[in-house]
Each structure stands twice: as structure tokens, then as C-alpha cells.
Amino acid sequence: MTRALSIFSAWAERRSLVLRWILAGPVALVLSILAMTSMPLWFPAGAAGIDHIVFPIVLFPAIWAVAFFYACMDDNIARATVLMTLAVVVQAVLVAFAFVAG
Questions:
Q1: Nearest to residue 98, comparing CAs of 57, 66, 51, 58?
Q2: SS3 content of the chain, % helix, strand, coil (to 5)
């Protein structure tokens, strides 16, 4: 396992600029859209039992900015890749289970 991580880390460092561009562009956008669509699932329901729709819309730019700047400014590009990929997968699973269960 550690050998695979070291191989991935070495590969990521060689292609750092391209990987940062991909993470800061399409991956940050997909992550923020998935977080916005899954937010009603983990956000508490409103007073009348209505899901808060304003919070995902208002927080969308903040989520995108955090993902964008994290991808641009993290020193360890391999860690940024793993964390952002994991966040995308978790949000996608939440949305998928909401459609399957709902």
C-alpha cells in the first residue's frame, strides 16, 4: 500500500501543473455542484418540514472557492488529489442513494 502511494505521489509531482489545473477547474466545479445537490440530505429540515433551498444556493460559491484555492495552494498535490476525489465520491454516493431510496 505504501509503495502504491509513493508511486502515485511521484507521478503526481511530475505532472503537478496539469493535475492542479484539472483539480482547480472541472473537479472543483463538480465537487461544488455535488455538494450543493447533496446538501438538503444532510442539512436539517426547516421549521415547516421544508428543506432549506437557500443555503445550498448561497454556499455554492463558497464551496467552489474553497475547493479551487485548496487545489491551487496545497503543497502536496497527491494529498489534494486524494482528498478531492474522496469528497466527490462521497457526495456522489449521497446523491445516488437519495435517488435510489427516495
A1: 51
A2: 85, 0, 15
User: At 76, phi and psi to the nearest 5?
Assistant: -100, 100
Q: Report whether 95 contacts 38 (CB < 8 A).
A: yes
pLDDT digits (tens, 9 = 90+) for 35-85: 998 888 877 777 776 667 778 888 899 999 999 999 999 888 888 999 999
Cell numbers placing 91: 457526495
Collect all residues with Cβ–Cβ distance below 8 Å to 30 and sequence separation of at least 6: 88
> Is the whole-model pTM more than 0.85?
no
Alpha-carbon distance of 97 to 38, in angstroms, equals: 10
Closest CA to 4 of 73, 78, 76: 78
